[in-house]
Amino acid sequence: MIPPAPPLATESGGKIALRIENLRKSFGETVALDGVSFDVPLGSIFGLLGPNGAGKTTLFSLAAGFINADEGNIGVLDTDVAHISDLQGRLTILPQDAAFQKNVPIIEQLLFFRLLDGRDRKTAEREVEEALENVGIAEYKHRGIHALSHGMLKRMGIAQAFLGEPELILLDEPTSGLDPQNARQIRDLIRTMQQERGVTTVISSHNLGEIQELCDHVAILDKGRLKTAGSVEAVTRGGRMLEVELRRPLTDAERARLLTVAGIGNIADRGPQRYRFEFALDEAVSVDAVTIAVLREVLDLGIAPKSVTEGDSLEETFLRMTGEQEES
Fold first, then answer.
1. Adjacency order of strands within the sheet including 225-231
2. Which residues have a Cβ under 8 Å from the Cβ of 180 and sit 6 or more positions away?
3. Residue 270: band (very low, low, confident or very high) from pLDDT cuts 50, 70, 90
4. Fewer Cβ neighbours under 10 Å: the N or C end of the chain?
């Protein structure tokens, strides 16, 4: 019997759920992934970001063993992806366009997946009932998919991905097409899975605000290449701006005074009482010095900040790294 491989670990010593090493994949002359490497920490909610055609879906397909890489390695829960069958029940995936049988009741389709994983029927029924209840479509369990809206179909796919006791879940655009209330429900469910079960979830999404709210780590792809990967805090800490929400709006005179702070190039309105201080740094002025000076001036004006955010938002970081901002 071959002994189990030792747990994969990050450079800092933390365990990881998914390791991507120098991954390359082409389709004819089209390069989908070009030397991509990053780690997904165990127990994290990890966002995979990129414009259309960046290689996100290809990476998911490789990690799930649907297709083979041209070069590179993928480690999934201490297992080489070449032995993906050893991960039965431990890894689940929701493809972006998941398809189901048209004339088979929803509950029977999901039961089939659990029976394939070796569950007895009683246990499988309990798990399916719980999953359908969690995503809010239990009342439709005896209907076919023709009775479901696009959003309900998406939730059925998520129920399938959450069945049983997975350790790693790959979700490709999980809230696409959902109304805000149902999207919130799915995000809450993902958090619950992480907090109560320690599940690692990798999410591909174009909703950058959602990813910043939900995820603790991200990777940004563009044209098949990795732009950055790490914690959300580290990725967005670019030192390019300071966003401050005040308890009242600034007057024109107060705005003019704040614009005199060394290192401030512009003040942009982000809401009725929210302002972005855009930095214009040189070698003589540091990020910390500008931040302290701005906050001191705000307090001298007799205004108590409600919130302070350093660095770019995830959306701005994404646009800057992928060049979308200049194109827009």
1. 91-94, 168-172, 200-204, 45-49, 217-222, 225-231
2. none
3. confident
4. N
Q: What are the strands of the beta sheet with 71-76, ordered from one edge?
A: 30-41, 16-27, 71-76, 79-80
Q: Give the three-state DSSP class for 299.
A: helix
* pLDDT per residue as tens digits for the range 6-41: 445 545 456 899 999 999 999 999 999 999 999 999
The model carries a pTM of: 0.73
Pick the closest to residue 145 from 108, 102, 90 (CA basis). Answer: 102
Please tell me what DSSP assigns to residue 15.
B
What is the tens place of the pLDDT at every residue in 118-160? Answer: 788 888 888 888 888 888 888 888 887 777 777 788 888 888 8
Report angle CA 177, 190, 160 to the nearest 5 degrees. 70
Q: CA 265 to CA 268: how far, in whole Å?
A: 10
